[in-house]
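Figure 2 data, in text form.
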Amino acid sequence: MKKRYLSIVLFLALVSVAVLSSFKSIQPAAVSNGYTIGDVATDFKLKNVDGKMVSLSEYKDAKGFIVIFTCNTCPYAVASEDRINALDKEYKSKGFPVIAINPNNPEVQPDDTFAKMQEKAKEKQFTFPYLYDESQSIFAKYGATKTPHVYLLQKEKGKHIVKYIGAIDDNVRDASAVKVPFLANAVDELLAGKEVSVKETKAIGCSVKQ
């Protein structure tokens, strides 16, 4: 009787393994990790802190865009705010405006609500649009995983081509200690008609809250 019981247990265990293996085999493929260098980036229409909808297509004279996924709360994002303002002031007039996007779910991070975004933009006197990715669809398409996470786009024949992905510079914690301004260097190279020499760096920040 004991042997029969053990045989039944073993049989059920083998069946379970087989079922689980079969289930794994029919799972959908992993989702895309987002854009890579040379990809065409999607346009979007997202709400700005002033209540107006903003899309890349509205910027008829832009040569490209500095798209930065950021937020109110991450210490790394907070440490980057003045740098982002400075980038916009430096490059907007040269055809590369900053477009900041908050990808965080406020149900997970309550201080990243739209109202809090408005307060932040006013407090820090943002010179750029600060958009709310309410559906969290845009950050997913781009593949942003951190705040801050940068995507430098260049207009080519009406399309937005990804030229650089990663960090603003080599010291997200301390602006005074920056030695290599990756993003600024990349924009300068594009403005000079050159290929971006450092196309990707590691974005360092807080994970996007979903």
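Caption note: The domain at 33-207 is CATH 3.40.30.10 (Glutaredoxin).
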